[in-house]
Design brief:
Number of strands: 8
CATH class: Alpha Beta
CATH architecture: 3-Layer(aba) Sandwich
Shape: globular
CATH topology: Rossmann fold
Number of helices: 5
Number of domains: 1
Largest sheet: 6 strands, mixed
Structural class: alpha/beta
């Protein structure tokens, strides 16, 4: 997918290689979902990731000198914010190898370093991960396991239908600019949540 290095709307301190604002998620697949090819979620900066990035940049003490993992990193926006906020080490995970490559490319563009493996984290970040019932179920299980280990779990979510609000407390809310071609609106109210 063709991308351009662009500033993140809610966190312009960060620039990412992104698809244009007139490109939708399914455009590369001819408007269809094909299960044999992962969708290029990494080519977009989703509202949940933007909100997490803004929160971490505004509250660097959240990650300062800590080990952080960004789950389902996509473009890497939240991970890059953590690295810029001087986390000791920032790891990324994603089921799509293209997302991992994109996150490393984006980190290099922002002069920070991300790792594929960091061991035991202090803080878990997860942006926009409750978009389907299957993924939400997997994420809830993983995030609860992390919280049971006394790790801080922060989630950015713009009101996706499968977000389990009862498990979280709100920390901050942002109006996040998003491409209309992606979200069918130009802004989403997005909350950063902490797992109870």
């Amino acid at each position: 997918m063709l991308t351009t290095l662009l500033p993140v709307p809610l966190a312009p301190e960060i620039s990412l290689h992104l698809a244009g604002s007139d490109v939708g998620l399914f455009d590369q697949a001819g408007g269809e979902f094909r299960s044999d090819q992962p969708l290029p979620f990494w080519a977009f900066v989703w509202a949940g990731g933007q909100a997490l990035a803004r929160y971490v940049l505004d509250h660097p003490e959240t990650v300062l000198n800590k080990t952080v993992i960004d789950l389902a990193t996509g473009s890497g926006v939240a991970a890059i914010a953590a690295a810029k906020a001087r986390a000791a080490q920032v790891g990324i995970t994603d089921i799509n190898p293209e997302a991992i490559a994109a996150a490393h490319r984006n980190a290099a563009a922002n002069r920070v370093t991300l790792s594929d493996d960091v061991g035991d984290p202090d803080v878990i970040l997860a942006g926009d991960v409750f978009y389907s019932p299957t993924v939400a179920e997997q994420m809830i299980k993983r995030l609860r396991a992390e919280r049971r280990k006394d790790r801080q779990v922060l989630v950015g979510d713009p009101g996706r239908g499968y977000f389990p609000e009862r498990l979280f407390e709100p920390l901050a809310e942002y109006t996040v600019p998003v491409p209309a071609a992606l979200e069918e609106t130009e802004a989403l109210a997005t909350t950063v949540w902490r797992m109870r």
